[in-house]
Design a protein that fits this description.
alpha+beta
Length: 78
């Protein structure tokens, strides 16, 4: 990974102590950009936030597309 953008924790969910783990499938193009994302588990609102951040990530170049499963933890106590 070359560039990683951290997801913004929605303030409303943080105040309500809503957290957990989201799982996102990310398709990375050969040029290292994230082509698409799909939420495969977790809170839908946190998932949307996670997918917005993941789409900004940049990976090193590869020979072919890659499918990654990304797990992100949202902890309202931190």
């Amino acid at each position: 990974m070359i560039t990683r953008v951290e997801p913004e924790y929605p303030e409303t969910l943080k105040r309500l102590y809503v957290g957990g783990t989201v799982r996102v499938e990310a398709i990375v193009a050969p040029d290292g950009t994230v082509e698409s994302t799909q939420l495969i588990g977790g809170n839908p609102i946190l998932g949307q936030t996670a997918m917005r951040a993941i789409k900004q990530w940049k990976y090193s170049r590869a020979r072919a597309k890659q499918t990654l499963i990304v797990k992100l933890q949202f902890d309202p106590h931190s």
